[in-house]
Amino acid sequence: MKYLMGAVAVSLLTACSQNVETEREANTQSMSYPETRKGDVVDTYFGTEVADPYRWLEDDRSEETENWVKAQNEVTFAHLESIPYRETIEKRLTELWNYEKISAPFKEGDYTYFYKNDGLQNQYVVYRQKGDEEPEVFLDPNTFSEDGTTSLAQLTFSDDGSLAAYSISEGGSDWRKIIVIDAETKEQLEDPLVDIKFSGISWVGNEGFYYSSYDKPEGSELSAKTDQHKLYYHELGTDQSDDKLVFGGTDAEKHRYVGGSVTDDDRYLLISAANSTSGNKLFLKDLTDEDSELVTVLDHTDSDTRVLDNDGSKLYLVTNLDAPNQRVVTVDASNPTPENWENFIPETENVLSVSTGAGYIFAEYMVDAVAQVKQYAYNGDMVREVQLPGVGSIGGFSGKKEADELYYTFTNYSTPSTIYKFDPDQGGSEVYAESGADFDSANYESKQVFYTSKDGTEVPMIITYKKGTELDGSNPTILYGYGGFNISLTPSFSIANAAWLEMGGVYAVANLRGGGEYGKDWHKAGTKLQKQNVFDDFIAAAEYLIDEKYTSSEQLAVRGGSNGGLLVGAVMTQRPELFAVALPAVGVLDMLRYHTFTAGAGWAYDYGTANDSEEMFEYLLGYSPVHNVEEGVAYPATLITTGDHDDRVVPAHSFKFAAELQDKAGGENPQLIRIETNAGHGAGTPVSKTIEQYSDIFGFTLYHMGFEQLPE
What we know:
- By secondary structure, the chain is α+β, with helices and mostly antiparallel strands.
- Helices cover about 20% and strands about 30% of the residues.
- Helix 3 (about 85-95) crosses helix 4, helix 3 crosses helix 11 and helix 6 (about 530-545) packs across helix 7 (about 565-575).
- The relative contact order is 0.11.
- It comes from Idiomarina abyssalis.
- It is an enzyme of class 3 (hydrolase).
């Protein structure tokens, strides 16, 4: 190992190291976990009894659960605060974070708007500028609450930009409020709309907008099941109780996720309806005719299909129906069912995502998780392949049809995000805003490798590290993964990961099955009865990093959040000896009951449920992290992280997993849970809290890899 030695004599360093090692052992051995009461709840699945002794921790409103959370945090933070270099990490993270960050601009009415953070502001501020006048603050979410935990979730403008509606999230909750203002005066025009969840805001002219929500559940709003989403129309100046129910109110229209959007010309209302996170029905209504009927575009959920744009009655749809890697098709709105679809951009071997702007269509292809972009005219002609600044990820190439310039961002794991201005007619790009991050990308490199999983499947992984790093098996390494819900992990810069790289850390991201990197087939290969493929891919990634001497089991941590938290929970219980540290964040960890909370039943496309069949129950029981903690096993040093207001993946998952580990784990490694209060699944988390979280995570990780001082 390499340490920050300065001019310290070797003998003094040795003595210091022995003292710190002794201190670490004392901290771990003397750690006393809070007592967690065991209940006598037993469920029976297909004749098999399964004990659930910590069922009481699911009650997020009980005093007993509240006291348990406080007691766990006391133990966890006492340990974290004892780590000698935790404050040094926090100081460096604060320095790295403290630079001005801005978004690409966008035009609404007479103003150009953009988001900006001066450096350490908890939330980004929305500014606007008219012509050459000085920019002014339009919305400052930092004023929404004293502690910075109320965030701006969404901001949309009416067609002419004179009105704006924005939603806020309080304490990280998915339940939102919508506030309508006069965009010129910033004056609030009516009472906020409340109890909005999983919703867009789609305007029709200046008269009103569509939004979606559930009936407020009985019991806890943070954990009670929600499964009938409804689409409403709100007319400005009327009470929310008078809002028109548009779709989702009948048994025939009952779906778990319903969304409504209006085409740019206000001609069509498009309604998507789904019961899981994959696959949707699609309907449209002609808004120019009050008496028009709802027209069915797709009456099944065998595909993910959306309307990209329209030109009069000609619709452009993006779909993976009969095209796992996606394609663009056209059809007339008068007869829009699939038998009438015509290919516009056919499917290729690479996964397609599509955007529009400045009167063009932009096709982004993902080639081994790296972006390529092609520009098309609306008549189907390919205009050009856009020359990107390098190998990495892009975001943008979207805007209004009348725009004469577009913007996109470019980034990868070692390159801070840079905003480029793009000329859609000439095809040239120029830098609009460079990152001010205090990070020299030239000192780091990213390498894409392909490794072989258990069943012979080739899986890509990108490994980022400081140039000159010796592959001697001693490098502290974080292996990150997700592997689910058709989500692709493409290269992107993270301020937090920059700090990790600066400290000599290796950062590896594996593109596991279950994700979307190679289309629908890649996704399906990591779902339901094939979910073990995801865990095998992750384990094989860890073995590759060890075999190739990037690291060793003693210096390897695994990290993932949400579905990635499940990933970490599964691999640490299946192969505990492979990792030094496990970092499951806001994880789905009780696979027998996940579908009983909030909108969890919508994840069944990926997971299946314990009620589906005996085979599915046994499969889930076989890997469910909560149910696979074994007595006396030495698990990695584990820091579970969650938020007490997480109503996406309820914190009971993490609570129960922590209780099982603390009760059963053998060895000396700590099994701790860090519970952020007044926080949710992650979106809108204040910068101050984010810095504290990463300081704790990195400090814990290095400390339990055996580092007496920060590596360099």
